[in-house]
Design a protein that fits this description.
With 445 residues, the protein is α/β, with parallel strands linked by helices. The chain has a domain of 127 residues. It contains 14 helices and eleven strands. The strands form two sheets. Strands 1, 2, 3, 4, 10 and 11 form a six-stranded mixed beta sheet that branches. The protein is rod-shaped, with a radius of gyration of 42 Å.
C-alpha cells in the first residue's frame, strides 16, 4: 500500500515539473512567433505628389536622416493632385504607408484607416493676380481667367470655397485647372488673370512670383473671419521685403491664410517606424522659418485626423528610452526581446521560487515514504500474537533497510537519511527481541 502511495506522489511531482516545463516552453514559442511577426520592415514608402513641391523636398531630407538608422524611404511622386496622397494611403495595395496631407482635406470618417503624426508646417494660400487689387469690384469682371488648381486637389477645393465666400460668381468666371508650374508661366505671360496656389515657402513658385514684374500677391484683410469660419486655417504674415529686400518685395506686409500640412500614416504602421519618422520630422521642421518660431513644429495640434498613439506619446515624453541611446534597429530588437523576456520572467520567477521547495519536498518525501513503510511494519508487529512467527516482517525490514542504504540523496539531506537508518535498526531490535526472547535463546544454547 505504501509503495502505491509513494509511486503516486512521485508521479505527481514528475507531472507537475513536466507541466511547468512544457508551459514555459510553449509560452516561449508563442512569444517568439509573436516577436518575429512584430519586427518592422526596413522600408517606408511615402507619397509626395510633384517633384517641384515642398513635400518632395522635405521627403528627401527625411530620406537622408532615416538612412542613418538603416531605414530606406522610398519616395513616390506623381503629377496628379495632392489629394491623391489620401487615396494612395487608403489603398492597401498601393504600398504607400505615409504621405503629406493638406489640412482640412479629409476627416476621420472618410479615412478611418489613417492617423496623423502631427502638423509639420504651414501651407499658405497664395493668390497671385494681375491688374487692380482684388478688393476692387473691377477685379472680378465677368470672364476673369482664374487657375484654381488641378481637379480634386486640395488647392482647388479651398480656392473655390474662399472665392464663393467673398461673393465671386463662379459661373461667370473662367476657371482653369492648370498645374502649378503651368499656372505660374501663364500668369507671367498674361494668359491668365489670377492663380490660387496652396504651398509651403520652400516651394519655388511663390518666391518666383513675389519678385515677378506685374504680379501682385493678395493680402487677406478679413483673415480673422476666414479662420473663424474654417478652424483648420491659420492667420500668418509675410513681412515686407521677405522675398527681396533690395527690391522691397513684397512692398508691404501680406496677411495670408494657411492650413497646416500633416504627416499621415496608415494605422498599421509599426510604432517603431512611427517614432523614427517623428524623429526625422523633428530634425527637419523644428528649426525656425519665415512663418514660425523655433520648435513650433512638429505640432500635436491637428484638426483633420486623430493622432496615432505613438505620436501622442512622442509629444508628451519624446522618443522611447531605448531609441534615444541606441541605434534604431538595436533598440527595436531589444524592445522586442523585452516583450518576450518579461512575460517569461513573470512566469519563470514564481516557478524558480516554487521548484526548490518542490524539490525539497520531493527529497523529504522519499524518506517519509520509507518511514511510512516502517510504521506500517511496526503496526503489523503489534497485531501478531506472541507465539506467531514474524519472519516475514524481518524479511520486509531487510528489504526496507536495503532500499534505505541504496537511496541516493544530496549531501544536504544526509542527516534525515542517517536518522532513518537508526530508526530501522531500532525496529530491527524489537523484531529480534520478539522473535528470539531471552529465555528461548538460553534454552537453545
Amino acid at each position: 500500500m505504501w509503495n502505491l502511495i509513494k509511486k503516486i506522489r512521485e508521479r505527481q511531482i514528475s507531472v507537475l515539473a513536466l507541466s511547468a516545463t512544457v508551459a514555459v516552453l510553449a509560452l516561449t514559442l508563442v512569444l517568439i512567433i509573436y516577436l518575429f511577426q512584430r519586427i518592422p520592415s526596413r522600408t517606408i514608402t511615402i507619397s509626395t505628389a510633384s517633384k517641384s513641391g515642398a513635400y518632395f523636398l522635405y521627403a528627401k531630407q527625411y530620406k537622408e536622416i532615416l538612412a542613418k538608422n538603416g531605414i530606406t524611404l522610398n519616395i513616390i511622386t506623381h503629377e496628379g493632385a495632392p489629394q491623391n496622397n489620401i487615396e494612395l494611403l487608403r489603398d492597401p495595395d498601393s504600398g504607400v504607408s505615409a504621405a503629406f496631407i493638406q489640412g482640412g482635406t479629409t476627416t476621420p470618417s472618410e479615412a478611418p484607416g489613417l492617423v496623423s503624426l502631427g502638423a509639420m508646417f504651414y501651407e499658405p494660400v497664395w493668390v497671385f493676380y494681375r491688374g487692380p487689387m482684388l478688393q476692387q469690384r473691377a477685379a472680378w469682371k465677368k470672364g476673369t481667367r482664374i487657375s484654381v488648381g488641378p481637379m480634386g486637389s486640395g488647392t482647388r477645393i479651398l480656392a473655390l470655397e474662399l472665392l464663393k465666400d467673398v461673393g465671386v460668381r463662379l459661373d461667370e468666371m473662367k476657371l482653369l485647372d492648370l498645374q502649378p508650374d503651368e499656372a505660374a508661366d501663364a500668369i507671367q505671360r498674361g494668359k491668365i488673370d489670377m492663380m490660387v496656389y496652396v504651398a509651403n515657402w520652400k516651394s519655388p513658385i511663390p518666391r518666383r512670383l513675389l519678385t515677378a514684374k506685374g504680379i501682385n500677391v493678395h493680402s487677406f484683410f478679413r483673415a480673422d473671419a476666414h479662420v473663424a469660419l474654417r478652424p483648420y486655417l491659420n492667420k500668418i504674415v509675410l513681412p515686407e521685403g521677405t522675398a527681396d529686400l533690395a527690391l522691397d518685395k513684397p512692398p508691404r506686409d501680406v496677411v495670408l491664410l494657411a492650413p497646416k500640412a500633416s504627416l499621415v500614416v496608415r494605422k498599421d504602421m509599426h510604432p517603431a517606424l512611427q517614432y523614427a519618422l517623428l524623429d526625422a520630422a523633428n530634425q527637419v521642421h523644428s528649426i525656425p522659418g519665415i512663418f514660425h518660431a523655433f520648435d513650433k513644429f512638429p505640432s500635436d495640434y491637428v484638426v483633420d485626423l486623430p493622432l496615432s498613439v505613438p505620436a501622442d506619446n512622442y509629444y508628451k515624453s519624446g522618443s522611447p528610452f531605448l531609441q534615444r541611446y541606441m541605434p534604431f534597429w538595436v533598440a527595436v530588437l531589444v524592445s522586442q526581446l523585452l516583450l518576450v523576456l518579461v512575460p517569461i520572467f513573470g512566469v519563470a520567477y514564481p516557478l524558480l521560487r516554487v521548484l526548490p521547495a518542490l524539490y525539497t519536498w520531493g527529497m523529504r518525501q522519499r524518506i517519509f515514504n520509507l518511514y511510512g513503510e516502517l510504521k506500517f511494519l511496526e503496526a503489523g508487529l503489534e497485531t501478531r500474537d506472541a507465539n506467531q512467527p514474524i519472519y516475514d516482517l524481518l524479511a520486509e525490514l531487510d528489504r526496507l533497510e536495503k532500499h534505505a542504504n541504496q537511496l541516493k540523496m544530496p549531501v544536504a539531506y544526509s542527516q534525515p537519511l542517517y536518522t532513518l537508518r537508526q530508526h530501522i535498526e531500532l525496529v530491527r531490535q524489537r523484531l529480534e527481541e520478539r522473535q528470539f526472547p531471552e529465555g528461548q535463546s538460553d534454552a537453545a544454547e
